[in-house]
Amino acid sequence: MTRTLLSLGHGYSARYLAELLIPQGWRIIGTTRSADKARDIAKTGVEPLIWPGTDLGDALAAADSVLVSVGPGPDGDPVLAQARPLIEAAAPHLRWVGYLSTTGVYGDHGGDWVDENTALEPSTERGKARVAAEAAWRGVPGLPLHIFRLAGIYGPGRGPFAKVLNGTARRIIKPGQVFSRIHVEDIAQVLAASLDRPNPGAVYNLCDDDPAPPQDVIGHAAELLGMPLPPAVAFEDADMSPMARSFYAESKKVRNDLIKQELGIDLRYPDYRKGLRAMMTQDT
Questions:
Q1: Are 33 and 39 spatial neighbours (Cβ–Cβ below 8 Å)?
Q2: Which residue stretches of the chain are H helix?
Q3: Which CATH number covers residue 197?
Q4: Among 67, 226, 240, 261, which residue's CB has the most CB atoms within a 10 Å radius?
Q5: Is 74 within the bounds of a domain?
Q6: Measured in whole angstroms, how far is the alpha carbon of residue 210 from the centre of its chain?
Q7: Residue 232 CB coordination number (10 Å)
Q8: What GO molecular-function term can you cite, just one (predicted)?
Q9: What average pLDDT does the segment 237-260 reach?
């Protein structure tokens, strides 16, 4: 029997999951708002569905699994706002629903460790919106929900190499600042493992083993490229967008023990050095 995944907001991480599932015989239906993106999605073997604009009922009826990559908006979770009755109707026959959240829900911990049991105390508006969205999805009756809290995502096309190469990279220095991150291929393998071992109600942190200051990552990218170390700029003096500056409002190290213990994950890229080295042939 062919398994079917409905990928709501079929984007960067979901595309890598599809690359794992399609060779296994999965049918993937991926939603997008854009006709141009729909054509791109179709080239990957995923069935595109322009949504909003098309009824989700048939896709939900065909799916046994649903991945939600759509983030909350100013008025809450847009998927539930537009399709909650359909999702509630589909809940009894769904085996797995995955919601991609963020480690931003934990808030600032001054560089200390957090895990899945840490209280949710975000300090940014984006983090607060994610906490509300997680709660909204938990509130759908009978839904086999799995929440995946993602650290900073990097991978082919998303990394420091472009900025280093074009000379715009800077090493922003904020003492004590540390971030966790996760390679997109490791996101995909975690999601695939969870699909094979559904555990409704589960929450997983997705990050690598090596939280690190952001300036170290930029510096290592320059080293790999054989280019000069980008200039160091104090956080207080840096010309940054409000969005970029908000990322520095919280500092924490995220534990990933649960994906290893419950899902048997062996990270392909357990630290940014291995991840960047692999990207050298893809991004440069």
A1: no
A2: 12-21, 35-43, 57-62, 78-90, 125-138, 161-166, 184-196, 214-225, 242-247, 257-263, 272-283
A3: 3.40.50.720
A4: 67
A5: yes
A6: 17
A7: 12
A8: aldehyde dehydrogenase (NAD+) activity
A9: 92
Into how many domains does the chain fold? 1
Mean pLDDT along residues 251-264 = 98
The predicted pLDDT at position 26 comes to 98
From the centroid of its chain, how far is CA 83?
A: 22
CA 229 to chain centre: 29
Please tell me the pTM assigned to this model: 0.96
Q: At which residue do the structure tokens 């650290």 appear?
A: 151
Residue 171 located in a structural domain: no
What separation in angstroms does the CA of 184 have from each of 38, 125, 252? Answer: 21, 25, 20
* Residue environment code for 256-269, b if the CB has 16+ CB neighbours within 10 A, otherwise e: bebbeeebebebeb
Instruction: Give me the domain span that covers residue 68.
Output: 4-154+182-207+255-268
DSSP structure class, residue 155: B
